[in-house]
């Protein structure tokens, strides 16, 4: 889905009209998160957010599993598998699965750590532990009570913060900010923008940087398309790298790349005499025969300081 425009603007007519439904949504979330969770028997680190849509959770999970690997611990990732057809629990295998099976994010994450798709996250955790997991990184699931969490990291996109500050459907929040942060151990803000918080909580800052692949983007004529939380961030990165951005197409987050859509995108690129380029997350949804025709710009999360997170990992014996 594409987020309604009024979610990012000061509360207006639609937000006011939908507020009673927000109260119902928030109450249901509060009841759900109060339920006891399954203890996995190994540390569970949750990377979640308070808003609908992308905030940078996937780059955060990648950075975290790489940090754990540097510390000598191989993490297993458990994901709901949004957009995929498999209920699981099943370990993602890029040789057998595609994005239609598992969702795009688990397929991408499987290149960095053993990754499990499970609608029931408790069952996913049990399967991961049976396969030898010493720590589980839960991709999303901050509002899901299925697992007891030992470390909860709330990721915030500094560019949008908490939007208009209201709960779905009046705004982008999955739950009120103060209530959500009361269950979190720390906040990771991605971007240089300052996001005011209503409670005192440890904060880590980071930013997304293009991965150095040797590609020279300077003056390259490109047509960019992206189906992520904020496609404009991807387009801005290409401009920063000096690309000649001749056209863009902002798709909905996780939007299926149907044959008709791909034909239209290819025609737009050809008309502009431009090279098609997309994100890593979108690239895994491309048919295999088209991946060689579309360039990918990968980004990685860089933290200003790992001290706070490392202290939590030390506490967990990781």
Automatic annotation (TrEMBL):
Give the matching InterPro entries. Answer: LpxK (IPR003758), P-loop_NTPase (IPR027417)
**Which NCBIfam families does this entry report, sorted A to Z?**
lpxK
Annotated residues that bind ATP are located at: 51-58
What does the record list as GO biological process? lipid A biosynthetic process; lipopolysaccharide core region biosynthetic process
- EC annotation? 2.7.1.130
Q: Which family does it belong to?
A: Belongs to the LpxK family.
This protein's pathway: Glycolipid biosynthesis; lipid IV(A) biosynthesis; lipid IV(A) from (3R)-3-hydroxytetradecanoyl-[acyl-carrier-protein] and UDP-N-acetyl-alpha-D-glucosamine: step 6/6
Top EC class of this enzyme:
transferase
Task: Show the SUPFAM superfamilies listed in the entry.
Answer: P-loop containing nucleoside triphosphate hydrolases
Q: What is the lineage of its organism?
A: Bacteria, Pseudomonadati, Pseudomonadota, Alphaproteobacteria, Rhodobacterales
Q: Name one GO molecular function term.
A: lipid-A 4'-kinase activity
For this UniProt record, give its keywords in alphabetical order, as a comma-separated list: ATP-binding, Kinase, Lipid A biosynthesis, Lipid biosynthesis, Lipid metabolism, Nucleotide-binding, Transferase
Gene Ontology CC terms? plasma membrane
**Gene name of the encoded protein:** lpxK
Q: What is known about what this protein does?
A: Transfers the gamma-phosphate of ATP to the 4'-position of a tetraacyldisaccharide 1-phosphate intermediate (termed DS-1-P) to form tetraacyldisaccharide 1,4'-bis-phosphate (lipid IVA).
Q: What's its catalytic activity?
A: a lipid A disaccharide + ATP = a lipid IVA + ADP + H(+)
- Provide the protein name: Tetraacyldisaccharide 4'-kinase
Q: Which domain of life is it from?
A: Bacteria
Membrane-spanning residues: none
């Amino acid at each position: 889905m594409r987020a309604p425009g009024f979610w990012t603007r000061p509360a207006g007519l639609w937000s006011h009209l939908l507020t009673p439904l927000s109260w119902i949504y928030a109450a249901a979330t509060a009841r759900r998160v109060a339920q006891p969770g399954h203890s996995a028997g190994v540390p569970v680190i949750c990377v979640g957010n308070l808003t609908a849509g992308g905030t940078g959770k996937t780059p955060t999970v990648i950075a975290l599993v790489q940090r754990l690997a540097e510390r000598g611990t191989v993490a297993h990732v458990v994901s709901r598998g949004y957009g995929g057809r498999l209920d699981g629990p099943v370990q993602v295998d890029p040789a057998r699965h595609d994005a239609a099976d598992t969702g795009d994010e688990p397929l991408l994450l499987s290149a960095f750590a053993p990754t499990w798709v499970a609608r029931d996250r408790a069952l996913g955790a049990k399967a991961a532990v049976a396969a030898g997991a010493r720590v589980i990184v839960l991709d999303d699931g901050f509002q899901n009570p299925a697992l007891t969490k030992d470390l909860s990291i709330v990721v915030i996109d500094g560019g949008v913060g908490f939007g208009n500050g209201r709960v779905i459907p009046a705004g982008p929040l999955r739950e009120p900010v103060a209530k959500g942060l009361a269950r979190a151990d720390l906040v990771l803000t991605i971007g240089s923008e300052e996001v005011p918080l209503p409670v005192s909580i440890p904060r880590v800052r980071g930013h997304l940087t293009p991965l150095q692949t040797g590609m020279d983007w300077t003056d390259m004529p490109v047509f960019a398309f992206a189906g992520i939380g904020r496609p404009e961030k991807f387009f801005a990165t290409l401009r920063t790298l000096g690309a000649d951005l001749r056209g863009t197409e902002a798709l909905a987050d996780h939007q299926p790349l149907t044959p008709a859509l791909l034909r239209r995108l290819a025609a737009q690129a050809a008309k502009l005499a431009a090279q098609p380029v997309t994100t890593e997350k979108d690239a895994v949804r491309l048919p295999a025969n088209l991946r060689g025709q579309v360039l990918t710009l990968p980004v990685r999360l860089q933290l200003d300081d790992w001290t706070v997170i490392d202290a939590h990992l030390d506490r967990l014996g990781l």
